[in-house]
Amino acid sequence: MLHFTNKALIFLCLLFVLNTSLHGQNYRVQIGAFPEQVPFSDFLFSGVKDVYANVDQNNINRYYLSENFHSSQDAEAARRYLVRKGFNNAQIIDMVREKSLCQANDPAANQGVIYTNINTEHLYIRHLYFGFSKSSLSLEAKEHLNKIFLKLKRNPTLRTTIQGHTDASGSPEFNLALSIRRARAARNYLVAKGIHSNRIDVKVFGESTPVAINISVDGKDEPDGRKYNRRVVVVLTDSRGEVVNDIERMRDVPGHLRINKQTLRQQLIYAELKR
């Protein structure tokens, strides 16, 4: 089943930052991540209070403990508490380490903050890229899907959510249709290999949720940025609908091409001018 959205401004949430200057409180604990929103009452009923949420550039809803922690030991104690409460994919985010891993020209490093889209070390989220105006799967995309197929085959309780995206070239209507074709290509590949379609959810976003700039700071076309937006995002979830742990780190987009406060307004103006 296809789920459509016209929330063109959803990626505003990806600029929600984690401030690392709070007197040495350098550890965050992520409770879990979900493709769909989770009612805060679910956490409250589990005995977990003071939770905040934001949405990253992959449209994944992330939930964190509100408290920062001074030490890894305190953060680990909190993580273990969450696991006992049933949040088996809780993880610690070392914000100082994340900052050190940023490229020198990364806006997160320059501004002294950490963007949530780089806090994905233990989350299995795979990007498949496409040629300009294309919806056919590349050999590399098929290799990634083969790995996803094997994981789904070996773990029958897992599900997958496939998201279709485009760059900002072309009309919004054309891009929405193109994102459908891209998402369907990935879904059909998995189905053809033997994964039942009822284990696959599909969402399409067209051009509305870029991970990279479509135009440069001087208003010129940015093909190096657009190629990262021509993507399908494949997310694996468990029986609770939660993104499962793995050892993948998604740092595909170079720092100077990422959406940040300086470029966000430009992308929004550009999108409005097209309409």
Please describe what this structure looks like.
This protein is an alpha+beta fold. It folds into 2 domains: 7-118, no CATH class; 125-273, OmpA-like domain (60s Ribosomal Protein L30, Chain: A). The protein has 8 helices and 11 strands. It has helices at 40-45, 72-84, 95-101, 107-110, 139-154, 172-193, 223-229, 261-273; strands at 2-4, 17-19, 27-34, 51-55, 61-65, 91-94, 113-115, 125-129, 159-165, 200-206, 231-237. A hairpin with a 5-residue loop joins β4 and β5 (61-65). α5 packs across α6 (172-193). It is globular and about 50 Å long.
Q: Number of domains in the coordinates?
A: 2
Multimeric status of the protein: single chain
Q: Which of globular, elongated, flat, extended, rod-shaped describes the shape? A: globular
Helix content: 25-40%
Biggest sheet: strands, sense, closure?
Answer: 5 strands, mixed
Per CATH, the class of the largest domain reads Alpha Beta
- Note the beta-strand portion: 15-25%
- If helices are DSSP runs of H or I spanning 4 or more residues, what is the number of helices? 8
Q: Could you tell me how far the N terminus lies from the C terminus, measured between alpha carbons in angstroms?
A: 28 Å
* Unreliable stretches covering 5 or more consecutive residues: 4-23, 102-123
CATH 4th-level superfamily of the largest domain: OmpA-like domain
Query: Strand arrangement, largest sheet?
Result: 1-10-9-11-8
Instruction: Please trace the helix and strand order, writing H or E for each element.
Output: EEEHEEHEHHEEHEHEHEH
Radius of gyration, in Å, reads: 19 Å
User: Averaging pLDDT over every residue, what do you get?
Assistant: 79
CATH fold category name of the largest domain: 60s Ribosomal Protein L30, Chain: A
